[in-house]
């Protein structure tokens, strides 16, 4: 594959174009908003000049509701030999593609499982897809060459291909992406009119839960509109769980001991179910989750401190498996939580204290 057309230069389209240009491909950019295409081109994502003839692959990077119409237009113009899209929902666009009479032999749906809270070409990154799953949803008549072209695109972006049925994909992303987005927004909405003193107490827990609530509402309306029924089904189940949890919490306030025991048992059951679900999320490099221990270090908010800490940990021969930073709202310090192998905790605590670092108990 040498030439690609990217139709739609938002976050995903521009990131894809940047990744392919970095690998030496010629990328032609199109967008309904010419300014967006020119911005992407100025970032090094390709050229706005039209291709001399059909490119090897055209990538339709538009909202789910527009995929069918844009694909039909691209095929009518003979833009490419083969086509894919990168919409976050697959069943709806596939139905539109079929209804519009598009050529499905040379088309395959796809969805890179990557994104950011920011949108538009200026938020794009060439490494956005590296190490991320990238779902491919071939139709019954997608030919082998089209599948291979999509696999090559995924490989060039450093992602991991996963072949799925379109409906199964939509049910999966409703569970792991779309419903969590709404829940994050609902929790964050509780803060909108909260007392300022309460908001200033926000720690890492609420920051973790509400991080994706900063996402673009218009973009999510497009996504959720294309997968509304499946997401609603999941939220119905969550609503039932919430109802039972509220009942259990009310029972904890009961005057009789039996009521309080019943409430405690209900809350414990919810928390244990959460433990079990969280434990199923894949760990490092997709391996089964590994139990790491946390070493928390107080870090001054000044240039070079984080690099110095990482350097000293590395010099000790300790691998940092994960890292999180919690910022103090009252002082110019942060709390860096280093996830390391349990066998390294005691040695790391001692060495860091000897080097003058303030180490917190976790």
Automatic annotation (TrEMBL):
It is an enzyme of class 1 (oxidoreductase). Residues 2-282 form the Prephenate/arogenate dehydrogenase domain. Pathway: Amino-acid biosynthesis; L-tyrosine biosynthesis; (4-hydroxyphenyl)pyruvate from prephenate (NAD(+) route): step 1/1. Gene3D superfamilies: 6-phosphogluconate dehydrogenase C-terminal like domain (1.10.3660.10), NAD(P)-binding Rossmann-like Domain (3.40.50.720). It comes from the Bacteria. The keyword Oxidoreductase applies. PROSITE patterns: ACT, PDH_ADH. Its EC number is 1.3.1.12. Signal peptide: none annotated. Residues 294-362 form the ACT domain. Keywords: Amino-acid biosynthesis, Aromatic amino acid biosynthesis, NAD, Oxidoreductase, Tyrosine biosynthesis. Pfam families: PDH_C, PDH_N. It catalyses: prephenate + NAD(+) = 3-(4-hydroxyphenyl)pyruvate + CO2 + NADH. SUPFAM superfamilies: 6-phosphogluconate dehydrogenase C-terminal domain-like, ACT-like, NAD(P)-binding Rossmann-fold domains. PANTHER family: PREPHENATE DEHYDROGENASE, PREPHENATE DEHYDROGENASE [NADP(+)]. Belongs to the prephenate/arogenate dehydrogenase family. This is Prephenate dehydrogenase. It comes from Kitasatospora kazusensis. The lineage of its organism: Bacteria, Bacillati, Actinomycetota, Actinomycetes, Kitasatosporales.
